[in-house]
């Protein structure tokens, strides 16, 4: 099947000369393998077997019925062996094998192990094996009849081998499935597989001999061949039959019930023998016929081949004529006659050889004069019509006979033009055009005009001038000299050829020209030269001939058919008498076998009868003995007898049996008895026996005897004696009874009685202890039955219930004792215990004390089971925890009060702190005296430190209050590390500490979790590391993968510093709240002591651990783990391959070993060759040494190094005269990048890298330095591709937009239409319902608040109609408060899109629900509007970037939206007050809602928030005064927006705006804006402090800061970050 699908013909047909395996055959083998491997699974094997039976049966039906069921190429269109009558159809023997194998597997897989199942499956397996073996052998001995039936499709070689394997497999399973009791016996069905196998071997051997039949005929003659191959077949069949019957008879003799089958064996043998004789005669007779026919056809073919060779020899005469005319064009008559004389002599069939020159019309007269002179008689160019000569007209060219030999016999042909006769002209020009001999037959020749029985023919060959091109027909006709011709008398030629080229074959032959399909011409009949041959018939009617052969002979370009028939019936007989010999022999052997079997069976019957009589006699005797034995054994006793006279003793077999011996192992003596009696009882037993013999004392004693295993058993012996007249005992008989079980029971009873007495004593003690436990336990203990009724209780519980004593509450329920509410609670809790057996563990319950107060207990209740594991009750114990509950409540209240106090105080402190920081910052910007500046700087630093403390207190308060929850969102680890670098880098640089990141390339970066809190942990630990590390030290942040699964990874982060370190005592309290290392560090380094405690809590929430390894004076390593999810399609930033960057050789120059190691690991992961140097001097030496053999391509140079720094080293390298070419240098610095750039102005540096170095930053810098493009960041492109994919999916969708606001309508319609969607607008819910009745839509975008009918009502109406149950309805509303999404879903909408619209989110949500029925022909990709020249003037209180993002950066659309906003909302206050005056609360709410939505879309966020509060006031039903105050706030926010939009309305066509340059900022102010962005991205509340400092100072220059401050105070950090990004971009451009 793989071969068919992969077009690998080697797998399909092994060898091009072999038959291919059809696809259905391969499929059948797969099903066969499944059926055989899973044959014990009756369902799987049954289904596969039925499939095989159907596959084979249907294919056989196609062959038998001659129909096409169209199953041959159902699963695969065949492209191999397609020129058959039925391409793709498996061979019939293949189909038969699949049917047989499927039936065999089906029978074998059925439940049960019946003999008939095994027999049938074994026979079917043998048949499959046989068919496969015969076919496979056919390939080995090259007989196609073995693997193909007639002209039908043949079985492939690997198909035949597959059936051999399947047959063996099924047979092996059948044998292995024999019952265990029968596995040591041969199965009754064994003869059939053996017989089938032997028969297959016989047939194969016969076929092998058959393949060499022609060799046998040549060596031994046809009769010997019959006796050879058919004799082997006969012997094999007889041997198979004899072996099968012998095995069958042998097996049947072992089974009595098969005797009836043996009676039929002679008849079966006789039947099969006669049938075999008939079959053998048929085979031999057919073989004889086929052999005779083969000899006849071989003789006919030999004659035809001889005639073909002879005609070739006759044709060679023409080539001889060609040679002489090629040697000279002027050949005389005498030369021609001399040259052809030899050919005429050796080829009697030649009537003549002629030369016919080409004579043109102009040359005719000259030619006629020439031949007249040559032959001295008037001659012209003429023709012969069979009666006489006829003159012809002059043509363009003639081919008359010039020379002919022998002349006398052929002189009448001189001058005859062969092109003037219709039957010869085509042959002439065909000979010229084809450059090969052509023929004319039959032909009327002048030479044969007097012979009616003779048929003439001619062969023509064109002769051309030498050295002329004969490529084209025109060239050949131009270059022809003439025609060489040979006239032949057909009969003479054939007889001459047969005499010289063949031996007499005893066949008559008739030759017919069949070149013309509709005009066959009889040529000649050859009578056999064989002695005694009959004369040939006048007419060869092959329909009446039993044996004939037809062969085709080429005569020039003509085709002759040779029809051959036997010359005499005895030469090729159709019946061979020797065919009767073998069948007669088989019949005779069959009769002898029949007589032998008949006689043998009768003898067996006589013997069986005698044996049966003997068996019956023995049976009667055995039954008598068994009855006696049973009577004795029934008592279980052994018998013995003692003869006092002879001293002989006898024991029954039972005696030895009860001692564990086999019969005969113990001698029947008295000593045997004495040897086995226990020594302790031997004396007593002897005395008792002698007393019985002498004094007739009754003998009934008990003693022990040793068994064969060595153990002792107890026996009771009793006896009676026969006595003489004097009382002397002479024969004593008795019995021995095994009483070991009784003795053991007596001993057990004694031990049980003793144990019971001991147990009773223990129970008394246990009862005393149990009562003590019950009565002195402080817990409440009680037992209840299955009906919840008390059975017992301890005294403490009795005091609680007021029921005295342990059984005081027996029979009562909790409803009889406790208040109903408490009792019901107890009952509900205990139901699961008693009814389901589920224990109740540490369940807190309240109870009513006698004094009326409430107490609390922690109860544990477990079920009680009886011996049948049925629940019969419950045991409970309840511990008093009232004091603990009260204490916990007090502690929680204190904790909550503390947390509330901390949160409130931190918030209250922030307000004055903002003023302190802002004012001190402004003061530092003025001219101050040194002493004043010192004071103010200290105030500023102290305020910032205090602000950090307050932030820690806020986080700690959240953690303690249990309100801190982690996000679980997609993020990139690189973003977190870049943010950490931005926050820590400046601090590290100011402290003189080198900060490094060690991030392996295999680290997963596309993660799922809370990036903010992960960054907070890293920031806390990194800040501490920098804080406690002196200048010149280093801090390394390392990340590794600890564990990884398919969906998540456990990352381990380590922050290592070279700071002051800690001792063991300091580490013990390190992660406790408000804990510091010691008082000195608190004074020196500051801090609240909350950072590590907060980090520990955050790590715990991330399912991780945090710990520290430190040593005083040797630095610290803080490590933590966290569990993060892995994004499905996430990947780190793509890296350029080593191949693209070639074989880079890089030198790292850095005095810091950690920095070198980190860079080396990164670069080696990229596949580069790395060397290291610790200083500039060594680096120069290494570069000079490697310059000629293998120079360095790149140098990563650290800036600050001892000795000569990096910049000076780079300068020396570039000016080094020893270097042929200086390597590219990238400067790496942990300090001020700008300072380094200033110092390196005269040095050619390819780039700068700031520590800590990220892998992606390193690679990008290298690529730029080496002239390559940087690697594209896929994080943004992935999102863009997702949005583009959503837009492509929505292409052509018919969307119903339900929106009442004009601006929102225009925005939505433009967005949808520009992205390939077809929107239709409805102004309210009622119009939407009407349009849905009229048109078909793929989805609905539904506003929620509208006049006439709102979106909620409209959606419910839509869902009430069955036809719209699957129509996607998506809400588009500005309501984004908690519960709004649930409200739209409850109304029947599918999803929710918030206003202002996030375009990407909108299309992704729509694509999730909406699938268009038809795709628009337009490209769904958004094409940018040609509005690059449109400029928007500065607009007050409007975030243009947000508005452009909503309108997909379509400035033209955005300008329209702004104009619409101006037109619709410049009189908003009057419109709203009018609605209030008319008490139209709904209309007023809708106006507020509309303003909120549209303001957000254009970026007027202040108006949006004010409108939001106004809408909320209306919805909540607040008083009119509050609503009017909210309206006043809206008006204050709206007025500047309307004023700034008025300038847009003044111009119909917008003109490019004049971009004014922002006033310059100080470096410190710009750096504060950069830090602000980092705080916003990490959701750090420190952003509000920065804004409070910057806004008063820069609001006049940067009015966006006011909006930023408002967004930050509302914790809308994402929007604030977007706005800040636009501001920074503008500032950078300037």
Automatic annotation (TrEMBL):
Domain Histidine kinase per the UniProt entry, residue ranges: 904-1126
Domain HPt, residue spans: 1450-1541
GO cellular component, one term: plasma membrane
A GO MF label: ATP binding
Modified residues (4-aspartylphosphate): 1198, 1343
Transmembrane segments: 20-39, 51-71, 91-108, 120-141, 161-178, 190-209, 232-251, 263-284
Modified residues (Phosphohistidine): 1489
Occurrences of domain Response regulatory (ranges): 1145-1266, 1294-1410
KW Kinase (keyword) present: yes
Catalysed reactions, semicolon-separated: ATP + protein L-histidine = ADP + protein N-phospho-L-histidine
Signal peptide: none
CDD domains: HATPase_EvgS-ArcB-TorS-like, HisKA, HPT, PAS, REC_hyHK_CKI1_RcsC-like
Coiled coil (residue ranges): 742-769
Pfam families, alphabetized: CHASE, HATPase_c, HisKA, Hpt, PAS_3, PAS_4, Response_reg
Membrane topology: Multi-pass membrane protein
Domain PAS: from-to ranges: 624-696
Residue ranges of every copy of the CHASE domain listed in the record: 327-563
All residue ranges annotated as the PAC domain in the record: 699-751, 841-893
Summary of subunit composition and partner proteins: At low DSF concentrations, interacts with RpfF.
Protein name, as recorded: Sensory/regulatory protein RpfC
Species of provenance: Neiella marina
